Amino acid sequence: MNIVGNYGRLWLTTWLFGLIGLLLPHPLYAQSAQSGLTMQAQAAYAGHFKYGEWLPVWVELENSGPDLDAEIRITLTSNAGPVTYAAAVALPSGSRKRLPVYVLPNNYSRELEVHLVDRTGSAESPLLTATVAVDPLPNISYLAGMVGSERGAISFAANASLGQLERRVVLADIALPELPERVEGLNSFDALIFNNVEAATLTPAQSAALQSWVGRGGRLIVGGGATAQETLANLPEALQFVSVQDIIDVQEVPDLALFAQSDAIEAPGPFTLAQAQIH
To answer: CATH code at 47?
Structure first.
Protein backbone atom coordinates (compact mmCIF):
# COMPACT_ATOMS: atom_id res chain seq x y z
CA MET A 1 0.00 0.00 0.00
CA ASN A 2 1.41 3.36 -1.01
CA ILE A 3 0.60 5.68 1.89
CA VAL A 4 2.90 8.40 0.54
CA GLY A 5 0.92 8.48 -2.66
CA ASN A 6 -2.16 9.40 -0.69
CA TYR A 7 -0.69 12.39 1.15
CA GLY A 8 -2.52 14.61 -1.29
CA ARG A 9 -5.69 13.37 0.38
CA LEU A 10 -4.49 14.23 3.87
CA TRP A 11 -5.33 17.81 4.79
CA LEU A 12 -3.95 19.80 7.68
CA THR A 13 -6.70 22.25 8.61
CA THR A 14 -6.88 24.84 11.37
CA TRP A 15 -10.17 25.07 13.22
CA LEU A 16 -10.61 28.60 14.49
CA PHE A 17 -14.04 29.14 15.93
CA GLY A 18 -15.90 28.67 19.22
CA LEU A 19 -17.14 25.37 20.60
CA ILE A 20 -20.65 24.05 20.07
CA GLY A 21 -22.10 21.53 22.53
CA LEU A 22 -23.08 18.13 21.26
CA LEU A 23 -25.64 15.76 22.73
CA LEU A 24 -24.96 12.18 21.68
CA PRO A 25 -27.80 9.67 21.28
CA HIS A 26 -28.30 7.49 24.34
CA PRO A 27 -27.80 3.71 24.11
CA LEU A 28 -30.79 1.44 24.62
CA TYR A 29 -30.74 -0.21 28.04
CA ALA A 30 -32.14 -3.67 28.81
CA GLN A 31 -32.28 -5.65 32.04
CA SER A 32 -32.87 -9.36 32.34
CA ALA A 33 -35.26 -11.12 34.64
CA GLN A 34 -32.13 -13.02 35.59
CA SER A 35 -30.87 -10.91 38.48
CA GLY A 36 -27.75 -8.86 37.88
CA LEU A 37 -27.56 -9.07 34.06
CA THR A 38 -27.85 -5.87 32.01
CA MET A 39 -27.13 -4.86 28.41
CA GLN A 40 -26.79 -1.54 26.59
CA ALA A 41 -26.68 -1.51 22.78
CA GLN A 42 -25.99 1.36 20.40
CA ALA A 43 -25.17 1.50 16.70
CA ALA A 44 -21.90 3.29 15.94
CA TYR A 45 -21.92 6.65 14.12
CA ALA A 46 -25.46 7.40 15.38
CA GLY A 47 -26.55 4.53 13.14
CA HIS A 48 -25.38 6.13 9.87
CA PHE A 49 -24.09 3.77 7.19
CA LYS A 50 -24.02 3.73 3.40
CA TYR A 51 -25.83 1.18 1.30
CA GLY A 52 -23.87 -2.06 1.16
CA GLU A 53 -21.38 -1.16 3.91
CA TRP A 54 -20.69 -2.63 7.35
CA LEU A 55 -21.76 -1.01 10.62
CA PRO A 56 -20.40 -1.74 14.11
CA VAL A 57 -22.98 -2.16 16.86
CA TRP A 58 -21.53 -1.56 20.33
CA VAL A 59 -22.86 -3.75 23.12
CA GLU A 60 -22.04 -3.22 26.80
CA LEU A 61 -22.77 -6.05 29.21
CA GLU A 62 -22.65 -6.23 32.99
CA ASN A 63 -23.10 -9.37 35.05
CA SER A 64 -23.38 -9.29 38.82
CA GLY A 65 -25.02 -12.73 38.88
CA PRO A 66 -23.53 -16.18 38.30
CA ASP A 67 -20.92 -16.89 35.61
CA LEU A 68 -22.36 -16.89 32.10
CA ASP A 69 -21.10 -18.16 28.76
CA ALA A 70 -23.07 -15.95 26.38
CA GLU A 71 -23.34 -14.87 22.75
CA ILE A 72 -24.54 -11.62 21.20
CA ARG A 73 -26.65 -12.19 18.09
CA ILE A 74 -28.05 -9.78 15.52
CA THR A 75 -30.22 -11.39 12.84
CA LEU A 76 -31.13 -9.70 9.55
CA THR A 77 -33.25 -10.83 6.64
CA SER A 78 -31.76 -11.23 3.16
CA ASN A 79 -32.77 -12.63 -0.21
CA ALA A 80 -31.15 -15.91 0.81
CA GLY A 81 -32.91 -15.99 4.19
CA PRO A 82 -31.99 -14.89 7.70
CA VAL A 83 -28.36 -13.96 8.36
CA THR A 84 -27.05 -13.91 11.92
CA TYR A 85 -24.00 -11.94 13.05
CA ALA A 86 -22.67 -13.17 16.38
CA ALA A 87 -19.94 -12.59 18.95
CA ALA A 88 -19.20 -14.93 21.84
CA VAL A 89 -18.56 -13.34 25.22
CA ALA A 90 -17.64 -14.87 28.58
CA LEU A 91 -19.27 -13.04 31.49
CA PRO A 92 -17.82 -14.15 34.83
CA SER A 93 -19.61 -12.92 37.91
CA GLY A 94 -18.80 -9.27 38.54
CA SER A 95 -17.64 -8.63 34.97
CA ARG A 96 -18.39 -5.72 32.67
CA LYS A 97 -17.49 -5.84 28.98
CA ARG A 98 -18.03 -3.70 25.91
CA LEU A 99 -17.48 -5.00 22.39
CA PRO A 100 -18.58 -4.38 18.80
CA VAL A 101 -20.57 -6.68 16.56
CA TYR A 102 -20.04 -5.91 12.85
CA VAL A 103 -23.18 -6.25 10.75
CA LEU A 104 -24.08 -5.69 7.11
CA PRO A 105 -27.54 -4.07 7.30
CA ASN A 106 -30.05 -4.01 4.49
CA ASN A 107 -30.56 -0.79 2.58
CA TYR A 108 -34.05 -0.57 4.05
CA SER A 109 -33.06 -1.36 7.66
CA ARG A 110 -34.31 1.12 10.24
CA GLU A 111 -33.91 -0.99 13.37
CA LEU A 112 -31.74 -3.90 14.44
CA GLU A 113 -32.62 -6.37 17.18
CA VAL A 114 -29.77 -7.34 19.49
CA HIS A 115 -30.15 -10.57 21.48
CA LEU A 116 -28.04 -11.96 24.30
CA VAL A 117 -28.33 -15.74 24.55
CA ASP A 118 -26.96 -18.42 26.84
CA ARG A 119 -24.51 -20.50 24.79
CA THR A 120 -25.09 -23.54 26.98
CA GLY A 121 -28.66 -23.70 25.71
CA SER A 122 -30.16 -23.77 29.18
CA ALA A 123 -32.53 -20.92 28.24
CA GLU A 124 -34.93 -21.35 25.31
CA SER A 125 -35.44 -17.62 24.74
CA PRO A 126 -32.92 -14.74 24.68
CA LEU A 127 -31.80 -13.51 28.08
CA LEU A 128 -31.93 -9.91 26.87
CA THR A 129 -33.20 -8.12 23.78
CA ALA A 130 -32.61 -4.54 22.67
CA THR A 131 -33.57 -2.64 19.52
CA VAL A 132 -31.20 -0.05 18.06
CA ALA A 133 -32.00 2.54 15.40
CA VAL A 134 -29.97 2.76 12.19
CA ASP A 135 -29.96 5.24 9.31
CA PRO A 136 -29.08 3.93 5.83
CA LEU A 137 -27.65 6.59 3.52
CA PRO A 138 -27.61 6.61 -0.29
CA ASN A 139 -24.06 6.20 -1.55
CA ILE A 140 -24.06 9.70 -3.03
CA SER A 141 -24.18 11.07 0.54
CA TYR A 142 -20.96 12.54 1.97
CA LEU A 143 -20.33 10.98 5.37
CA ALA A 144 -17.62 12.53 7.54
CA GLY A 145 -16.52 11.02 10.84
CA MET A 146 -15.53 13.40 13.62
CA VAL A 147 -12.88 12.02 15.99
CA GLY A 148 -12.29 14.44 18.86
CA SER A 149 -13.53 15.76 22.15
CA GLU A 150 -15.73 18.49 20.64
CA ARG A 151 -16.94 19.50 17.19
CA GLY A 152 -16.59 23.25 17.51
CA ALA A 153 -16.98 25.03 14.18
CA ILE A 154 -16.71 21.73 12.32
CA SER A 155 -20.47 21.48 12.80
CA PHE A 156 -20.80 24.03 9.99
CA ALA A 157 -19.38 21.45 7.58
CA ALA A 158 -22.85 19.92 7.40
CA ASN A 159 -23.85 22.95 5.31
CA ALA A 160 -20.90 22.65 2.94
CA SER A 161 -21.40 22.73 -0.82
CA LEU A 162 -19.51 19.95 -2.62
CA GLY A 163 -18.98 21.22 -6.13
CA GLN A 164 -21.77 20.84 -8.64
CA LEU A 165 -23.16 17.66 -7.11
CA GLU A 166 -26.01 17.98 -4.65
CA ARG A 167 -24.74 15.72 -1.90
CA ARG A 168 -26.11 15.55 1.61
CA VAL A 169 -23.29 16.06 4.12
CA VAL A 170 -23.64 14.01 7.30
CA LEU A 171 -21.35 14.33 10.34
CA ALA A 172 -20.96 11.37 12.69
CA ASP A 173 -19.06 11.42 15.98
CA ILE A 174 -16.54 8.70 16.79
CA ALA A 175 -14.90 8.33 20.20
CA LEU A 176 -11.26 7.34 19.71
CA PRO A 177 -11.66 3.99 21.53
CA GLU A 178 -14.53 3.20 19.15
CA LEU A 179 -12.54 3.72 15.96
CA PRO A 180 -13.02 0.35 14.21
CA GLU A 181 -10.30 -2.29 14.24
CA ARG A 182 -11.60 -3.56 10.88
CA VAL A 183 -11.37 -1.41 7.77
CA GLU A 184 -14.84 -2.59 6.73
CA GLY A 185 -16.20 -0.51 9.58
CA LEU A 186 -14.75 2.64 7.99
CA ASN A 187 -15.82 2.12 4.39
CA SER A 188 -18.98 4.25 4.72
CA PHE A 189 -16.85 7.34 5.36
CA ASP A 190 -15.68 9.79 2.71
CA ALA A 191 -13.57 11.64 5.29
CA LEU A 192 -12.35 11.30 8.87
CA ILE A 193 -11.59 14.44 10.86
CA PHE A 194 -9.16 14.22 13.79
CA ASN A 195 -9.43 17.44 15.76
CA ASN A 196 -8.46 18.33 19.33
CA VAL A 197 -7.91 14.68 20.19
CA GLU A 198 -6.76 14.11 23.74
CA ALA A 199 -3.72 11.97 24.46
CA ALA A 200 -4.52 8.34 23.70
CA THR A 201 -3.06 5.44 21.79
CA LEU A 202 -4.64 3.60 18.89
CA THR A 203 -4.43 -0.17 19.05
CA PRO A 204 -2.34 -1.86 16.34
CA ALA A 205 -5.57 -3.08 14.73
CA GLN A 206 -7.05 0.44 14.72
CA SER A 207 -3.86 1.83 13.16
CA ALA A 208 -3.85 -0.85 10.48
CA ALA A 209 -7.52 -0.25 9.65
CA LEU A 210 -6.96 3.52 9.41
CA GLN A 211 -3.93 3.12 7.14
CA SER A 212 -5.81 0.69 4.93
CA TRP A 213 -8.75 3.09 4.67
CA VAL A 214 -6.42 5.95 3.63
CA GLY A 215 -4.74 3.64 1.14
CA ARG A 216 -8.12 2.96 -0.45
CA GLY A 217 -8.72 6.67 -0.97
CA GLY A 218 -10.18 7.85 2.33
CA ARG A 219 -9.52 11.50 3.18
CA LEU A 220 -7.91 12.12 6.55
CA ILE A 221 -8.28 15.68 7.86
CA VAL A 222 -6.16 16.71 10.85
CA GLY A 223 -7.06 19.81 12.85
CA GLY A 224 -4.38 22.38 13.63
CA GLY A 225 -4.17 25.00 16.35
CA ALA A 226 -2.85 24.60 19.87
CA THR A 227 -3.53 20.84 20.03
CA ALA A 228 -2.12 19.92 16.60
CA GLN A 229 0.92 18.09 17.97
CA GLU A 230 -1.15 16.07 20.41
CA THR A 231 -3.65 15.17 17.70
CA LEU A 232 -0.92 14.06 15.28
CA ALA A 233 0.65 11.91 17.98
CA ASN A 234 -2.48 9.73 17.99
CA LEU A 235 -1.99 8.76 14.35
CA PRO A 236 0.13 5.89 13.04
CA GLU A 237 3.64 7.06 12.18
CA ALA A 238 3.01 6.43 8.49
CA LEU A 239 0.16 8.97 8.59
CA GLN A 240 2.03 11.69 10.50
CA PHE A 241 2.68 13.59 7.31
CA VAL A 242 3.86 16.83 8.92
CA SER A 243 5.99 17.92 11.86
CA VAL A 244 4.68 20.78 14.00
CA GLN A 245 7.40 23.44 14.28
CA ASP A 246 5.66 26.10 16.35
CA ILE A 247 2.31 27.37 17.66
CA ILE A 248 1.63 31.04 16.82
CA ASP A 249 -1.16 33.62 17.06
CA VAL A 250 -2.12 35.75 14.04
CA GLN A 251 -4.72 38.45 13.47
CA GLU A 252 -5.76 37.41 9.95
CA VAL A 253 -5.85 34.17 7.97
CA PRO A 254 -6.10 35.15 4.28
CA ASP A 255 -4.55 31.87 3.14
CA LEU A 256 -7.39 29.92 4.74
CA ALA A 257 -9.99 31.88 2.77
CA LEU A 258 -7.93 31.37 -0.39
CA PHE A 259 -7.72 27.64 0.25
CA ALA A 260 -11.47 27.46 0.80
CA GLN A 261 -12.13 29.67 -2.24
CA SER A 262 -14.38 31.86 -0.11
CA ASP A 263 -14.69 35.45 1.04
CA ALA A 264 -12.32 36.81 3.64
CA ILE A 265 -12.93 35.53 7.16
CA GLU A 266 -14.68 38.28 9.11
CA ALA A 267 -14.29 36.82 12.60
CA PRO A 268 -11.85 38.90 14.67
CA GLY A 269 -8.46 37.47 15.68
CA PRO A 270 -6.24 36.42 17.18
CA PHE A 271 -6.24 32.93 15.70
CA THR A 272 -4.00 30.15 16.98
CA LEU A 273 -2.15 28.35 14.18
CA ALA A 274 0.20 25.41 14.05
CA GLN A 275 3.24 25.97 11.81
CA ALA A 276 4.17 22.64 10.28
CA GLN A 277 6.61 21.18 7.80
CA ILE A 278 5.46 18.54 5.32
CA HIS A 279 7.57 15.39 5.33
So the answer is: 2.60.40.10
